């Protein structure tokens, strides 16, 4: 559909402008050769796996605002120096720190059985161990209809359905409502705590963590716990049998005041237009249950390795290529907002921004949100990427990744190299997000696509702003 | 190979006896029709899924000797009554009870990171939280060479390799040595605790529990913890980088004295030779981390459903069909030994025994360990099972399943309907052994195979003893 729409727009351009566009060479023969060479090198290189192995092994989990995230920033700085970036720096910001702490949750009626759960980001601790009956809600819609103060002394459980696997991750936003806003209704109804079915597409005994939404500037006053899909299935079956459900819950999760975080900025300074910035990146922080391999060690590895391969070309591209390792993404895009604020005056010089933050499976599609002429450039880039199995997608697709949202909102053009996300929500925010889940060949395909496309945009003079 | 061997044995039988065998009808036309009908009914029936759903949902985890296992016995008794067995009873025995208790294990050097572990069966508790350096052993062989008292104040970690997936489960016995006897060497060397790589073929963040071997009548004086494969990979990578490893460990697992367990016995009384018993079964207990769906709720469901389908035939088979739901298998085949002892005088009347305890995937092979004439009967049964995709395997394969070992050792003939075990050790003894892992069609294929083969043996007059 997007392809058709774009062709139609092209057809109504005046003949004059079409002739001008056709006369221009958007990508030179030499640029194309360089891009092809970058792809071939990337496919044979182990650099991406080396980076994500090093990050997950030597730093481990790195919750936004934690001491581990600080170690990760220093790691990122050293990595940038070692890989030949021209400048490397950390830009700090402050943020409120939420700590998961210890949790114990078990079914106590109809019998004793441990549940596999985890606190959701922003949840309050239990004041003392909660022992309470459970009120079952089939989905978030059922809970939103609950009356004020009707759940006093009870624990609410929001069931729902396992996410259907999808290449694009469609369905996550909707499923995620129970995680995001469920607490507001449970708290309004006076519940002692809220338990929700994890938002994930796997049937493993892992809870999926993730941030809740604040209500204005207010966070939950109650503990909120996500349990694994098989545990939620279990509660559903017991509920459907008419068994009374009760749980015991002790959770230490809480806010712990202001701390420092930061973004790591690695630049390859442009040879002709150093002030123009092509920004790529991933997020350096991870949830603390796994080691953040797929989310988002992969994105850090893909974008850093891609830029490092470009750095080995005989000559720097015309524009500056900037790799940003964003801090504190998981806990609210805090690094992204800090970056957009700290660089607000200079965002006009950000000619493009894109992030890799959807796992480590192969890229299948290139979408963009740039002006019509630049769209033709992206079309040409897509042709060059086609040996990687990548097809051209929509040319009016907003958003270049979560950490790009704040700067895209201020007019920075974006592309996105869409990854196959079919298995992404199996691992997303679980203890199981570990290095072994990354396929080196798939990671290398990502790096090849980033290296070629970012090189071509950075070496181009085409303006991308709408 | 086994087929060839059997044919050779057949060839050297005297012409006279071959003629006699050929002249005998091992399976009548009516029996064959009944068997075929049983298979067709089983493939269309939901009974197996109903049983394993009920067991895992209404009882949940059921550690040998626990209150939950007692509830499971009562559940089994009621199930037998409801399904039309002629007699149902519980035969109790006493056993020592080991309780897992709470565990916390985390890496403390080179940095803080929780590890996903569980105590191994028979392990001692920590007296106080252990904070100690880790000595890395590449495998069990490396640890067996360690000198006495050379690990004082240290924690030993036995690495090893992930189990290769295998249809037959080959490799489990060897991999399992680190779980079984590792503690003896760690304790001899004075280690404060032992940590081992889980014995499993999955790369998920689940530890695999399981019983250790006692040393004569002595159990470990130290805590012994299995960690998940990804956690073990992590420690290996850090070790290979030359990083000093240290852990913090607190474990409450311990022996808690004598308790009661029991076997549930459900009989379909034979119409002509009620004293002759064809015994099938599974084990009712499970490890406590999962809900024991695949191990061995499936075996309970398969064998009970198969017998229940036979019970619906117009006439009972000639021999008695006995379903035994063994207690306390996981913790040392305690129900199996109790059964063999309690029925010692009558084992001569057990014409055949077999157990389903290798998951819920499809049966692919029928093996046996019976006399040559009975081998021909089993050959004929295999032909009848062939529409289920089952092939005939060896005719001198000892052992009909773990709980059959004690009675097979006393001369009871066995067959085994070998299941595809390729994914079995992904789930084995983990929190992830839950109902969602069972494929209803595969379970039904198992029930079809059991129903047909057990019916044919129970309705036969062929003696099976060697």
Quantity of strands of chain A, as a count: 16
Which overall shape of chain A is indicated by the principal axes computed on the Cα atoms?
elongated
Distance between the termini of chain A: 21 Å
What would the CATH topology of the largest domain in chain A be?
Aminopeptidase
Structure summarized in a few sentences:
Two copies of one chain form a homodimer. Chain A is of the alpha/beta class. The first copy, chain A, folds into two domains: 2-95 and 258-458, Zn peptidases (Aminopeptidase); 101-252, Glucose Oxidase, domain 1 (3-Layer(bba) Sandwich), CATH 3.50.30.
Notes on the structure:
2 copies of one chain form a homodimer. With 466 residues, the first copy, chain A, is an alpha/beta fold. Chain A folds into 2 domains: 2-95 and 258-458, Aminopeptidase, CATH 3.40.630; 101-252, Glucose Oxidase, domain 1, CATH 3.50.30. Chain A has 15 helices and 16 strands. Chain A has helices at 2-12, 15-23, 29-44, 47-59, 67-82, 140-144, 172-175, 177-188, 229-240, 293-311, 334-342, 372-385, 405-408, 424-427, 440-458; strands at residues 87-99, 103-109, 113-114, 117-119, 130-137, 155-158, 193-197, 224-227, 246-251, 254-268, 273-283, 319-326, 350-355, 363-369, 391-392, 414-419. Chain A has an 8-stranded mixed β-sheet, with helices on both faces. A 5-stranded mixed β-sheet of chain A has the order 1-10-12-11-13, sandwiched between helices. In chain A, strands 15-14-16 form a 3-stranded mixed β-sheet, with helices on one face. In chain A, helix 3 runs antiparallel to helix 15 (440-458) and helix 4 (47-59) packs across helix 10. The first copy, chain A, starts with a helix and ends in an 8-residue tail after the last helix. The model of chain A is unreliable at 1-19 (pLDDT under 50). The A-B interface holds A 53, 57-61, 68, 71, 107, 110-113, 116, 203-206, 229-230, 233-234, 237-238, 241, 243, 290-291, 430-432, 434-437 and B 53, 56-61, 68, 71, 107, 110-113, 116, 203-206, 229-230, 233-234, 237-238, 241, 243, 290-291, 430-432, 434-437.
